[in-house]
Specification:
heterodimer; A: 88 residues; mainly beta; ATP Synthase, domain 1; nine-stranded mixed β-sheet; 68% strand; B: 288 residues; alpha/beta; Pyruvate Kinase, Chain: A, domain 1; five-stranded mixed β-sheet; 5 helices; 6 strands; 13% strand
Chain lengths: 88, 288
């Protein structure tokens, strides 16, 4: 589907999440940011907190993430952090 | 004769139980090795991704600076020595200690010593070296805290300018059963931008809050990831070394048992032959 993109959440303990998502809502340093598909290349640091993901299947998932980095480029998004726990 | 035979039987039994122990230790080392290899596999994607981010940040020519990258005259240095807590792993610890001693020559200025693993700590303590901080008897559950604590300690000492450079003596693991003790400068660390594949320039990226701010946050993470890899490689090498050593020991025990069994059979056969000769010559003497 054209309106979705792939997202990976990677920690030193391995990939916590990998999937196709429509929307990612993440805590950056200057407030919350939502990322849709076809986003321009974007690199941002996150202060950690609650991160919400809406999957292409319509399912919504919440994560508690530590400080880290979010990068999106050509519909490939990666969230790098030291800690991440799933809340569902 | 029978006394000798009994002693030999006891010895065979002894070697057999040693063999059982070494075989068990080999298996324990193998399972621990697997666990650390898995950890390393899990860490690799993270390290690669974080290096990717770094690469994009460095893609423009505007230089960036960070306290952890500051090069100073090496007046005070720190040495991190990673050895194992337990022995029976061949030359693993010995080569690490030998590598560490290169820094402890009298003509050098004594470095600040940070030690992980009882073996290296004890050996160098006996030689009269004083440790700044040691981590010994680390259980598998404590591995993560030890890695973070060591990294933050080194980072703190370096940023407070108490030390000007940090070297690590650890075992570099390249591939299956190839490992070697090395000394590597870990701080101030060089940013290796490996030129592999086209890198999109950072001017294309939207960066928030700013390129400099991102860099400041990223460098400690790169350092932490690097430290983690150093520790994991050390542990993998340790268990590979132990596995090999114990495998060798089991093989040696097998050879020894074979030799002893052969000797035992010979002695037993000699005893039987001797008895037969006695009986035959006895009966012959009676007939005459």
């Amino acid at each position: 589907m054209a309106t979705s993109y792939s997202l990976k959440i990677i920690t030193p303990q391995g990939a916590v999440y990998e999937g196709t998502v429509v929307h990612t809502f993440l805590p950056t340093e200057n407030g919350f940011v939502g990322v849709l598909a076809h986003h321009a290349p974007y690199l941002v640091s996150s202060k950690g907190g609650k991160m919400a993901v809406k999957e292409s299947g319509g399912l919504e998932k919440d994560f508690q993430v530590g400080p880290g980095f979010f990068e999106v480029n050509h519909d490939q998004a990666v969230f790098l952090t030291q800690t991440c726990t799933s809340q569902n | 004769m029978s006394g000798q035979l009994r002693a030999l039987k006891n010895r065979i039994r002894g070697v057999e139980s040693t063999q059982k122990i070494t075989r068990a230790m080999e298996m324990v080392a193998a399972s621990k090795l697997k666990r650390y290899q898995k950890l390393r596999e899990q860490t690799t994607p993270y390290v690669q991704a974080i290096e990717g981010v770094l690469k994009r940040l460095l893609a423009t020519d505007i230089p960036l600076s960070h306290p952890l990258l500051e090069t100073r005259a090496e007046k005070e240095i720190a040495l991190l020595v990673i050895t194992s807590d337990t022995g029976l792993c061949g030359s693993y610890n010995h080569s690490l200690v030998a590598e560490a001693r290169k820094f402890l020559r009298p003509d050098y200025k004594t470095p600040l010593l940070i030690g992980v693993g009882k073996n290296g700590v004890n050996t160098l303590s006996r030689a009269g070296h004083v440790w700044q901080k040691t981590f010994t008897n680390t259980t598998t559950a404590q591995v993560e805290p030890v890695i973070t604590e060591t990294s933050s300690l080194i980072e703190k000492l370096f940023t407070e300018k108490k030390i000007d450079a940090v070297y690590a003596v650890y075992t570099h693991f390249t591939s299956k059963s190839i490992y070697r003790a090395t000394a590597e400068k870990i701080l101030p660390f060089r940013l290796e931008v490996t030129s592999g594949g086209p890198v999109e320039t950072s001017s294309l990226y939207i960066m928030e809050p700013s390129r400099e701010a991102l860099f400041t946050r990223l460098v400690p993470l790169v350092f932490a990831a690097k430290m983690r890899m150093i520790f994991l490689e050390s542990f993998i090498s340790e268990h590979t070394a132990r596995m090999n050593a114990m495998h060798q020991a089991t093989e040696n025990a097998k050879e020894l048992i074979d030799a002893l069994v052969l000797l035992r059979n010979k002695i037993r056969q000699a005893a039987i032959t001797k008895e037969l000769i006695e009986i035959v010559s006895g009966s012959k003497a009676l007939k005459n």
